[in-house]
Design a protein that fits this description.
single chain, 489 residues, alpha/beta, Arylsulfatase, C-terminal domain, four-stranded antiparallel beta sheet, 14 helices
């Protein structure tokens, strides 16, 4: 058995952290099994609520202002389409010290490089070079007649004149006994399972990345999994009836223009389909864990189950991710198991961690000295039962929009959350009394000092990460207190 642990990463796409919380109605028996045999991180967050910047952070240990990926890299609105010069990823570093590195699934980190350019042997991959997530003007001209909406709105659809319907959810026919045998995700997972069986014969340590694309929208799921949930039994999210009147107007526009078309019954059905999608991903996670057990490699393999970002799925009456800045888009599941290296399994960890913390963790496990300038910190002492005194006491986010640009930064502690909106008024939530972020107290004088403290923390982190929000010009220097307030000695 190799001395250094194997590393197996199972990263879903757009999965809420709450769905694997104890007592949640979503059925995730394999995540529960993993948590019972390892540790569950209850406060794991993405630094940016979108696939590309969050995945780039995961692979580099850097925040977007450092790695250079701010939004979707596969369309003409991208700020950058590839990692900044000199940025390295953990995959190529693991390969350099002798790890066998294998990649199956979604990449979405660079439009100029594939996983194989960054140290990985590729199996089934998506979101790689040559992908396009937009439509050209000529595409629109050619297909214009197909995007003229007439008649009644279909159930589970959002009508968008001139854009085409947006499908929120649908039920698919089962494909085989498992229900998902013909899905792309099953191809990703089955190839990974095959790799696990092959790896049992190697003397080298290995790293395997498994990246299905579920439960990303649309929530189109085989009937076998949809039937596990009765929409009539599903309660609407606690924040569903938020009027958003004290929130930025953009939030209100999204809800009123799009998601308010869904009836409350459809919202319940959408949640049922989303949970069904998560349950399907959990079943595939189970196949990977079973392969580890069957090949005798589980004891010395660090398994990491997590996602790149979440989905609102009806919270505050919204869907998808990006701006706004509510918890459901940022909070991601994170469970780690390593029988040989994690003591006292079954623990829950309340430390705030981000996707930037995994690259330095993997490097330390591989006995590689992490670069000094990484944003993240190794989780090794945390999973071993220690939380260092220097551990961050807050989450910091960086969002510059998706295909529409918005400067948004947030600072969140266990008690408060401040959101700086460069495009509208700010937000402040007292999480002690308002965990669902319903009441914006940013203008309440009783919270002025708390807001000022969080703004100062924002500026200090922004300076450390070489962020782009320091311009003092009159139309852009809109934070209630400028950089000097946070950086004065």
């Amino acid at each position: 058995m190799p001395a250094r642990p194997n590393i197996l990463i199972f990263m879903t796409d757009q999965e809420q952290g709450q769905v694997v919380e104890p007592g949640h109605p979503c059925k995730t028996p394999n995540a529960d099994r993993l948590a019972a045999e390892g540790v569950r991180f209850r406060h794991c967050y993405t630094p940016s609520p979108h696939c590309c910047p969050s995945r780039a952070t995961f692979f580099t240990g850097l925040y977007p202002s450092r790695h250079g990926i701010y939004n979707n890299i596969f369309n003409s609105a991208a700020i950058h389409t590839e990692l900044n010069p000199g940025v390295i990823t953990f995959g190529e570093q693991l390969r350099e010290v002798g790890y066998r590195t294998i990649f199956s699934g979604k990449w979405h980190v660079s439009a100029a490089e594939n996983p194989s350019d960054r140290g990985w042997t590729e199996l089934v991959t998506t979101a790689t070079k040559g992908t396009n997530h937009g439509r050209t003007i000529e595409d629109w001209r050619r297909d214009a007649d197909a995007y003229t909406e007439e008649g009644e709105r279909q159930r589970g659809h959002i009508q968008r004149p001139g854009w085409g319907d947006f499908v929120v959810y649908d039920t698919l026919p089962d494909a085989g006994p498992k229900g998902y045998e013909d899905s792309h995700d099953y191809k990703v997972v089955s190839r990974a399972v095959g790799a696990i069986h092959d790896l049992q014969y190697t003397d080298d340590s290995w790293a395997l990345f498994v990246g299905p694309v579920g439960p990303h929208d649309p929530f189109n799921v085989p009937k076998k999994f949809v039937d596990m949930y009765n929409p009539a039994d599903i309660e609407l999210p606690e924040s569903y009836r938020d009027t958003l009147e004290d929130k930025p107007r953009l939030y209100q526009r999204m809800r009123r223009q799009l998601w308010d078309q869904l009836t409350e019954d459809e919202v319940r059905e959408s949640i049922a389909h989303y949970w069904a999608f998560c349950t399907m991903q959990d079943a595939m996670l189970g196949e990977v864990l079973d392969a580890l057990d069957a090949t005798g490699q589980a004891a010395n393999t660090l398994v990491v189950f997590l996602s790149d970002h979440g989905d609102y799925c009806g919270a505050h009456g919204l869907y998808l991710k990006g701006v706004p800045a509510f918890r459901e888009a940022y909070h991601v599941p994170c469970i780690m198991r390593w029988p040989k290296g994690i003591p006292n399994p079954g623990r829950e960890i309340d430390a705030i961690v981000t996707l930037a913390d995994f690259a330095p963790t993997f490097l330390e496990l591989a006995e590689i000295e992490p670069p000094d300038d990484l944003t993240g910190n190794s989780l090794l002492p945390v999973i071993q039962g220690r939380v260092p005194t220097w551990w961050p006491d807050a989450l910091y986010t960086q969002c510059n929009g998706v295909e529409l640009y918005y400067s948004q930064r947030a600072v969140m502690t266990h008690e408060f959350k401040y959101v700086y909106n460069g495009f509208d008024f700010d937000e402040l939530y007292d999480l002690r009394n308002d965990p669902h972020e319903m009441v914006n107290v940013a203008e309440d004088p009783a919270y002025t000092e708390i807001k000022k403290e969080l703004v100062g923390k924002m500026w200090r982190f922004a300076a450390k990460e070489n962020d782009i929000i320091f311009n003092p010009y009159g139309t852009v220097g809109l934070a209630p207190w400028g950089p000097a307030e946070g950086l004065r000695s």
